[in-house]
Amino acid sequence: MRAYSKNWSTRKDKLRMPAIEFSKEEKEQLVQRFQAYFRDELDHELGQFDALFLLDFIAENIGAYFYNRGLYDSHTILEQRLESLGDAIYELEKPTGFSKA
């Protein structure tokens, strides 16, 4: 049986994205960033409750897009590293009379 992080859930042996959750400190920083952006760029004061509501909305409705992009990028990097590793192993091979076909 596979062991997964407690944040991962399985369904018919498929991994599913965990819910996006932030610590209290992370939420405070994100709320401050939202408030600063709204104030500086939109000339609008965003209250604490509204900023938290916006954060929850983004995490629930848009977060998966960013999450998936991170997965795609990680997958690309991993493929590149594995190809490089394969090349390195090939370079270590000693010549023999045996030919892999």
Based on Cα principal axes, name the global outline: elongated
Number of helices: 3
What is the strand arrangement across the widest sheet?
Answer: 1-2
Structure classification: mainly alpha
- Please report the total strand number as a whole number: 2
Note the beta-strand portion: 5-15%
Mean pLDDT: 87
Low-confidence regions:
none
Give your account of this protein's structure.
By secondary structure, this protein is mainly α. The protein has a domain of 67 residues. 62% of the residues lie in helices and 6% in strands. It is built from 3 helices and 2 strands. It has a two-stranded antiparallel ribbon with strand order 1-2. Helix 1 crosses helix 2. The longest helix is centred in the C-terminal third of the chain and has 30 residues. The protein is elongated.
State the main characteristics:
101 residues, mainly alpha, 6% strand, elongated
Which SSEs are present, and which pair or pack?
Layout: E1 9-11, E2 14-16, H1 24-42, H2 48-61, H3 63-92
In short, what is this structure?
The chain has helices at 24-42, 48-61, 63-92, and strands spanning 9-11, 14-16. The protein is mostly helical and 101 residues long. It is elongated.
